[in-house]
Design goal:
The protein has about 400 residues and is an alpha/beta fold. The protein is about 40% helix and about 20% strand. It has two domains: about 100 residues, Glucose Oxidase, domain 1 (3-Layer(bba) Sandwich), CATH 3.50.30; about 290 residues, Alpha-Beta Barrel (TIM Barrel), CATH 3.20.20. It is built from 16 helices and 16 strands.
């Protein structure tokens, strides 16, 4: 049987982007199931709180039972009532695309922690590090944590563009504020773990929501606009803030400052990488890795390695939308947005093979639902990157 996709509308979110489970169409609680019901009502309370997620055929975002689900982190997805009958057996919920896949997985292999190589957790805040490292002895298999600078700003209440648009004192204060936050992250690491900071990558539509003073351009297509490496190349203020951050880290952490590494976002090719390294005026021995998430960067992988990238990170979610011209946040093209599409798989294969030939470490991001497929169909990278909740689940399974 082929896998089919049912489109829905997300009423409440959760901590994971992808969930698999057995459909529970009864009113009885079934731990870890996907509860399927025409509507949410008080009589379903026990079944709801035992479920990993709920799929219903009616209701809004502010209903009483929906509020209970929101408080407990239980996702609720509403679909057309006619589609409820199709939800039988094991299904996969994709919260980002607000859709459900019905049918068997292509691979019967159950991935384990051992399959990940050197695992990297993609985190949003300090609590994610603590969550992983509290999982038991096997948490040390996670040797790195990857965070976007924007998330650091969000957690610390910083407005980066406003700060960078100010004077030298504001710029230095911004860099030191980042260092303050990073120091608390380093303190939470286990021995031999490191933190990879993806440099500031604020799209104009996102920047407008967190900026009060700086001028933000209005772009017709922010995804393909002035952000990532191309924005960093045009900002001397950011270079100065970065130096303030690095100086503060060295002053406060000493040699442990080397546990914080930097990564270039939204990169086009090796020329852009080399220009950015020179523009940022980084110390000669400081590692600088590259995020591969555009088709041009895929085809420039060997040259990016030769230009001195210390490591590569393959950003699957952006790579899919650029390869397939399908916005990952637009539910109208959810059927086109396919993380296992042959073109995407070919691109990732090229990156891994080129990086391995160059002797450059490479890590591939994977959704939990895709991991078995990637393990079966891709050459082995040095490691896989996963979101905190899905990686935590693999660690806990391996501890049993």
């Amino acid at each position: 049987m082929n896998r089919r996709r049912i489109q829905g509308f997300l009423l409440t979110g959760g901590t994971q982007n992808v969930l698999r489970g057995i459909c529970n169409r009864t009113r009885r609680p079934l731990e870890g199931s996907i509860l399927v019901a025409p509507s949410l009502e008080a009589g379903l309370y026990e079944a709801i709180v035992a479920a990993r997620a709920v799929v219903c055929g009616s209701g809004g975002q502010t209903g009483h039972m929906q509020s209970i689900c929101r408080g407990r982190g239980i996702p609720v997805l509403r679909v057309d009532e006619a589609d409820l009958a199709r939800l039988v057996g094991e299904v996969t919920l994709h919260l980002e695309s607000q859709s459900i896949e019905v049918g068997p997985e292509a691979s019967a292999q159950e991935p384990s922690l051992d399959d990940l190589g050197s695992a990297c957790a993609v985190i949003a805040d300090l609590q994610d590090i603590r969550t992983i490292n509290a999982c038991g002895p096997k948490a040390k298999r996670v040797d790195s944590f990857f965070i976007r600078e924007e998330f650091l700003c969000l957690a610390a209440g910083l407005r980066p563009l406003d700060a960078l648009d100010g004077g030298p004192a504001d710029i230095a204060d911004y860099g030191r504020a980042l260092a303050d936050r990073l120091c608390t992250f380093v303190e939470a690491l286990l021995p031999d773990q490191r933190l990879v900071l993806r440099l500031l990558d604020l799209r104009s539509d996102h920047a407008a929501a967190v900026t009060e003073l700086a001028q933000v351009p209005v772009e017709p297509n922010p995804e393909l606009g002035l952000h990532g490496a191309r924005w960093l190349l045009g900002s001397t203020a950011y270079r100065d803030a970065l130096h303030a951050m690095l100086g503060s880290l060295r002053e406060r952490l000493g040699d442990a400052a080397g546990r914080v590494e930097l990564s270039v976002p939204f990169l086009t090719d090796e020329e852009e990488f080399a220009r950015l390294r020179a523009h940022l005026d980084l110390p000669a021995g400081l590692p600088l890795s590259a995020f591969i998430e555009t088709p041009s960067a895929v085809h420039a992988t060997a040259a990016i390695c030769a230009a001195g990238a210390s490591e590569l990170f393959v950003g699957i979610k952006d790579l899919v939308q650029f390869y397939l011209a399908a916005d990952r946040s637009n539910h109208l093209v959810a059927d086109t947005y396919q993380t296992r599409h042959p073109a995407v798989m070919d691109g990732v294969r090229r990156v891994v093979e080129s990086a391995r030939a160059a002797g450059t470490p490479v890590r591939v991001f994977s959704l939990g639902a895709d991991l078995a497929h990637y393990l079966d169909h891709l050459p082995t990278p040095d490691g896989y990157m996963m979101c905190t909740a899905e990686l935590q689940q693999l660690i806990l399974q391996s501890e049993r």
